[in-house]
C-alpha cells in the first residue's frame, strides 16, 4: 500500500463503495506524457456530489514475456504476445529503412493500471496536481521549531489508519510478502499501491516498521541500527526468494519528508526510474545505516533538504520564518538597497502565483521537454 487508501479509509479494497465507470470528471490535475499517466479530479455523483475523488490512469510497463516470439525458448504458448496473429497494424509511413506504425495488440496487453482515492482530501489533490515546488534546508533548530510542532499537530496530513490496518492484519493480509513480528526490529513488507503486483520489472515494495514511535529519519538513532540492518537483509532475502531479483540490483531508500509519518522504506529495482528517487528527497538505506554507525545522533545534528509544494501549510510556516517564494534583487538605482521582490508575471496576480497550476481540459498536450516532474510518492 502507499500513502493513500485505494478505497474509503478502513474499508476493504475488495469491495469499494464506488463504481469506477460512474466517475464524473471535473478537471485534469496532471497529464504526464513521460510516465504515460494522467491524474483526474472528479466525483462519483451517484454517491455524493461533494466528496472529491481522484482517479489515476497509468500505462503498464512492458514485460519481457509480452514481446516473446515463437522462436523464444521461454515462450509460454498461453501467454499473450505483441507478435501474434492478433496484432492489428496500421502503417503511417515508410521512408527508406524507417517505418512508422500504430499497432493495437490483443486485449490482454492493453490493460491500464488505475488508482482511486475516495474520498480525497485537499492534501491528496495538491499532491497529484502540477504545483510550484520549493527546496527547504531544514536545520535541527528549524525541525524543532517548525517541522516537529507541525507534525505533532497532525494538521494537513494523511491518515495513518490504513497503515495500522496492515500492521494489525485487519486489511491486505493477502498482499504481505514478508513479515517479521518482532515489536522492536520487525516490519511488514508488501507491494506499494503504485505497483500492479505482477510485473517484476516494475516492482515497488514498502517495508513498514512495527514501531509506532518512528515518524521519519529525524527519529532514527544508533539504537535503531538492529532494526535497519534487519530491514535491509530480511527484505533482500524475501525479494530474492519470491521474485528472483538479485539483491545488488535493488534500490532501498527513505523519503524525507515522507508522504506519511510512520517510518517505511521504499524498495524497487535500480534499472527503473521510480517516482521520488531524486537526490533532494531520497536517502539510501545503506547511507542511513553508515551515518548512524559513524555518529549515533547523526539525524539530530544534520541539515536535511526536502521539497515542499505550493499549498502545503508547512511551507507557509517556513515562509513566515524567512522568504522562500520571493527573491532578493539589487536595485539598479540603489545597489546598496536590497529589498525582497516577488517575482510575478505581468499577467498573474500574487494570489494566482500561490495557487497550483491546473491543467485545463482544452489545453494542448505539452512537449516532453516541458513536462513537470510527477507528484512524489
TrEMBL record:
SUPFAM superfamilies: HIT-like (SSF54197), mRNA decapping enzyme DcpS N-terminal domain (SSF102860). The active site is at residue 264. GO terms for biological process: deadenylation-dependent decapping of nuclear-transcribed mRNA; mRNA processing; RNA splicing. Its EC number is 3.6.1.59. One of its GO terms (molecular function) is 5'-(N(7)-methyl 5'-triphosphoguanosine)-[mRNA] diphosphatase activity. Residues 352-366 have a biased composition (Basic and acidic residues). Decapping scavenger enzyme that catalyzes the cleavage of a residual cap structure following the degradation of mRNAs by the 3'->5' exosome-mediated mRNA decay pathway. Belongs to the HIT family. This is m7GpppX diphosphatase. It comes from Drosophila willistoni.
Amino acid at each position: 500500500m502507499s500513502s493513500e487508501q485505494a478505497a474509503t479509509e478502513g474499508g476493504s479494497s475488495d469491495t469499494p463503495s464506488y463504481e469506477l465507470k460512474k466517475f464524473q470528471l471535473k478537471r485534469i490535475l496532471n497529464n504526464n506524457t513521460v510516465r504515460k499517466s494522467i491524474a483526474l479530479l472528479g466525483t462519483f455523483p451517484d454517491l455524493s456530489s461533494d466528496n472529491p475523488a481522484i482517479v489515476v490512469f497509468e500505462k503498464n510497463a512492458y514485460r519481457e514475456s509480452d514481446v516473446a516470439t515463437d522462436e523464444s525458448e521461454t515462450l509460454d504458448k498461453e501467454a499473450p504476445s505483441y507478435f501474434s496473429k492478433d496484432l492489428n497494424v496500421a502503417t503511417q509511413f515508410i521512408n527508406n529503412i524507417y517505418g512508422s506504425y500504430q499497432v493495437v495488440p490483443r486485449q490482454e496487453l492493453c490493460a491500464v493500471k488505475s488508482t482511486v482515492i475516495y474520498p480525497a482530501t485537499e492534501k491528496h489533490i495538491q499532491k497529484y496536481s502540477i504545483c510550484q515546488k520549493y527546496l527547504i534546508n531544514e536545520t535541527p533548530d528549524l525541525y524543532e521549531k517548525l517541522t516537529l510542532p507541525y507534525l505533532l499537530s497532525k494538521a494537513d496530513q494523511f491518515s495513518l489508519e490504513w497503515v495500522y490496518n496492515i500492521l494489525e492484519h485487519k486489511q491486505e493480509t493477502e498482499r504481505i510478502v514478508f513479515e517479521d513480528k518482532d515489536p522492536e526490529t520487525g516490519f511488514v513488507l508488501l507491494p506499494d499501491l503504485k505497483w500492479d503486483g505482477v510485473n517484476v520489472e516494475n516492482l515497488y515494495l514498502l517495508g513498514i516498521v512495527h514501531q509506532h514511535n518512528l515518524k521519519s529519519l529525524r527519529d532514527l538513532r544508533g539504537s535503531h541500527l538492529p532494526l535497519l540492518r534487519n530491514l535491509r537483509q530480511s527484505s533482500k532475502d524475501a525479494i530474492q526468494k519470491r521474485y528472483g531479483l538479485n539483491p545488488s540490483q535493488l534500490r532501498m531508500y527513505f523519503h524525507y519528508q515522507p508522504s506519511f509519518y510512520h517510518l517505511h522504506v521504499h524498495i524497487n529495482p535500480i534499472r527503473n526510474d521510480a517516482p521520488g528517487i531524486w537526490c533532494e528527497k531520497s536517502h539510501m538505506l545503506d547511507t542511513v545505516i553508515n551515518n548512524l554507525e559513524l555518529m549515533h545522533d547523526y539525524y539530530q545534528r544534520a541539515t536535511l533538504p526536502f521539497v515542499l509544494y505550493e499549498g502545503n501549510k508547512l511551507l507557509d510556516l517556513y515562509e513566515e520564518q524567512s522568504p522562500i517564494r520571493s527573491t532578493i534583487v539589487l536595485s539598479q538605482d540603489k545597489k546598496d538597497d536590497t529589498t525582497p521582490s516577488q517575482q510575478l508575471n505581468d499577467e498573474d496576480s500574487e494570489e494566482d502565483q500561490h495557487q497550483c497550476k491546473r491543467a485545463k481540459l482544452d489545453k494542448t498536450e505539452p512537449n516532453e521537454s516541458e513536462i513537470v516532474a510527477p507528484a512524489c510518492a
